[in-house]
Design a protein that fits this description.
Elements lengths: L10 E10 L2 E11 L4 E5 L6 H8 L7 E6 L2 E2 L5 H8 L2 E4 L11 H12 L4 H14 L15 H13 L5 E5 L7 H18 L2 E6 L2 H7 L2 E6 L2 E6 L1 H5 L4 H8 L14 H11 L3
Parallel strand pairs: 3-8, 3-9, 6-7, 7-8
Antiparallel strand pairs: 1-2, 1-4, 4-5, 9-10
Helix pairs in contact: 3-4, 3-5, 4-5, 5-6, 6-7
Length: 275
Amino acid sequence: MNAPIPNDPVVKFTDVALGYGDFTVLQSIDIEVRRGQVVAMMGGSGSGKTTLLRAATGQITAQRGTITVFGRDIADVPGEDLRELRQRMGVLFQQGALFTDLNVFENVAFPLREHTCVSESQVIERVLDKLDAVGLRAAAHLKISEISGGMARRVALARAIVLEPEIILYDEPFAGLDPISLGITAQLIRNLTDRLNCASMLITHDVAESFLIADQVYMVGQGKLIASGTPKELSASQDAYVQQFLNGQPDGPIAFHYPTSPAFTKWLEQHSGRA
């Protein structure tokens, strides 16, 4: 793996607490994501991984602490500036979110047509270049209904990088893929990070593939940052949570039940009287 170029973090969480309403999902979160790095955010279902992605894109604000994106405190970025800031990001959604009434080419071309004023010849050149990067140049003319699930994920990835973003955020990029497509997608993430010299932030629970391509791993659970380090460092960790997650052990500190919150207690009190 290429060593990241020393620079300021593209995304930085400093003593951050995140949640919804009165319920705090995560607290005391410190994270850095830099250019040239693939950074994996890992944890069990309901641990708060996707909450981290929402916070990094400004969909939710921190209850405490500071989140800086491209050197700016995202909580203080006004609407129009936030829109421009988001244009410097690429997002690969878990289900792809492709437009079924557009073909492969037009799906990838969509961000260029919406956010730039480049000529049609430049649109064609850029889209075919990005489709070539994911191995689907010759599929440009196909309808979305004519391609497989793994191919659709690669089309969505081409669309996420067509504006050559400075950071790409991946929401469960390996979910639902067969072993071959999974391996292809993992290597594409690594290769595109190196090619574009961008930052890549993965929200995932896939240990094997993530550890093959990640420079840094942050593991969340029990409402906090449990561990962080390189894949090698985490593999050697003796922390009970880390070992339970990495080895898929049924018994350990990871609880099966969703934690009780003040909002649930209030809801239960309201509904208990109706029984």
